């Protein structure tokens, strides 16, 4: 089942990468973080890993899925906060562009993951 998410996430990421490239060409250098090319594979990895565990929990009891879903959200938020704070403290000159890039990618990948987990969690309706 994990293979169903691989192609869509790579297409989605390709579109985001193209948009990031366009933004880096259009916007002045101080608005685009040099870490942007590294952030996209990071979010791909986290999304695939999260989706794997959520899909695994879907095959069990519903309460197990809900617990796994909430736990994945909390763990990702802690991971993201640690990365954002650490980077902002270590690279103060790039803090604002990094945080903006990170936040935009976080929103994009969270929406993507939510849409796909809802899509896969729905049971196919029987045709009449």
Question: Key terms for this structure?
Answer:
80% helix; 128 residues; mainly alpha
Task: Explain what you see.
With 128 residues, the protein is an all-alpha fold. The chain contains four helices and no strands. The radius of gyration is 17 Å and the shape is flat. The chain has one domain.
SS elements, strand count: 0
The structure class reads mainly alpha
Question: What is the global morphology?
Answer: flat
How many discrete structural domains?
1
Q: Helix fraction?
A: over 70%
Outline the biggest β-sheet: none
Q: Helix and strand string, N-terminal first?
A: HHHH
Number of helices: 4
**How much beta, percentage-wise?**
under 5%
Q: What is the mean pLDDT? A: 87
Radius of gyration from CA coordinates = 17 Å
- Span of the ends, CA to CA: 26 Å
Q: In terms of per-residue confidence, which ranges show pLDDT below 50 for 5 or more consecutive residues?
A: none
Task: Give a short synopsis of this structure.
The chain contains 4 helices and no strands.
């Amino acid at each position: 089942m994990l293979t169903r998410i691989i192609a869509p996430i790579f297409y989605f990421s390709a579109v985001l990468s193209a948009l990031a490239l366009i933004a880096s060409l259009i916007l002045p250098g101080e608005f685009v973080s040099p870490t942007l090319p590294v952030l996209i594979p990071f979010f791909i990895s986290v999304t695939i890993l999260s989706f794997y565990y959520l899909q695994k929990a879907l095959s069990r009891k519903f309460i197990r899925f809900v617990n796994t879903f909430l736990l994945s959200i909390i763990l990702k938020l802690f991971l993201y906060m640690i990365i954002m704070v650490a980077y902002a403290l270590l690279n103060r000159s790039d803090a604002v562009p990094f945080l903006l890039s990170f936040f935009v990618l976080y929103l994009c990948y969270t929406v993507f993951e939510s849409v796909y987990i809802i899509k896969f969690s729905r049971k196919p309706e029987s045709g009449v």
